[in-house]
Amino acid sequence: MPNKTAKIIVITSQKGGVSKTTTSSALADGLHAKGHKSLLIDLDPQCSASLISGADTHSKQTIYEAITAQITTQEAIQSRKERADILPASKALARLDAEFSTITGKEYKLKEALAPLLSFYDYIIIDTPPSLGILTVNALTAADAVLIPTQADILSLQGITQLMESVQAVQAYTNSGLIMAGVLLTRYSARSILSRDMSDTAEETANKIGTFLYKTTIREAVAIKEAQALKESLFTYAPKSNAATDYEAFVNEFLKRGMI
């Protein structure tokens, strides 16, 4: 096994609609733009990160074939111009809970598949499904750190507490070195009194689970949906948009904190 250099970051939330996929893609592309060799892994059977990036999800060379050892992980990686590499998803991922049900060590399959890549990348960013199953457990088991995007509302913040129960179980049984890489407020409106009030609650929630709230917040912007519809990077499609400015600030803060 090569000496480990890549840092593996899982972006996860048990609540949908919190810009999990957008954040995963922006972090991978933002790190790439700053000269870090980065790989985005789409581990969601909905294939959202793959679809908005223009990746070929009809290929038989996806993360599904790699994690089930039908091909090498390197064979499934797709290069993208001016963007992070991507390891696309497949709808077949939805079958893994059943396919792995009787397999010993099923929690470690992704970690084993990623081992050959660790000396080739600086960062590996994993986008997970919005639910706790074998895919998310595999991601957390393989990861160095977990980052949680959330909206400034009570249901999203409650989801963080629920997610932490899963993270703590992984820390106890399959990955004792897993750390928290912060909570990021997305789809944020500074004009909303509720958002401002809930941001204080978000910081309290982050502190309770032993992590921090990023100072950067991500504003809602139509440029995000436009870039995704055109399958382009937000940073090249609309570099001066609020969202691109916010995500660049987030990437800078992520690197400055240097928690891993």
* Sequence of secondary-structure elements: EHEHHHEHHEHEHEHEHHH
CATH uppermost class: Alpha Beta
Main-sheet strand order equals: 3-2-4-1-5-6-7
Q: What is the architecture at the second tier of CATH?
A: 3-Layer(aba) Sandwich
Helical content (DSSP H or I, runs of 4+): 40-55%
Describe what this molecule looks like in 3D:
The protein is α/β, with parallel strands linked by helices. It has a single domain (7-257), classed as Rossmann fold (3-Layer(aba) Sandwich). The chain has helices spanning 20-33, 48-53, 63-67, 73-76, 96-99, 109-114, 134-142, 154-173, 193-208, 222-229, 234-237, 242-257, and strands at 7-11, 38-42, 85-87, 123-127, 145-150, 179-188, 213-219. It has a seven-stranded parallel sheet with strand order 3-2-4-1-5-6-7, with helices on both faces. Helix 9 links the parallel strand 6 and strand 7 (213-219). Helix 1 (20-33) packs across helix 12 (242-257). The relative contact order is 0.18.
In brief:
By secondary structure, the chain is an alpha/beta fold.
Offer a few descriptive terms.
single chain; 260 residues; alpha/beta; Rossmann fold; 7-stranded parallel β-sheet; 7 strands
How does the SSE layout of this entry go?
Blueprint: E1 7-11, H1 20-33, E2 38-42, H2 48-53, H3 63-67, H4 73-76, E3 85-87, H5 96-99, H6 109-114, E4 123-127, H7 134-142, E5 145-150, H8 154-173, E6 179-188, H9 193-208, E7 213-219, H10 222-229, H11 234-237, H12 242-257
Parallel strand pairs: 1-4, 1-5, 2-3, 2-4, 5-6, 6-7
Helix pairs in contact: 1-12, 8-9
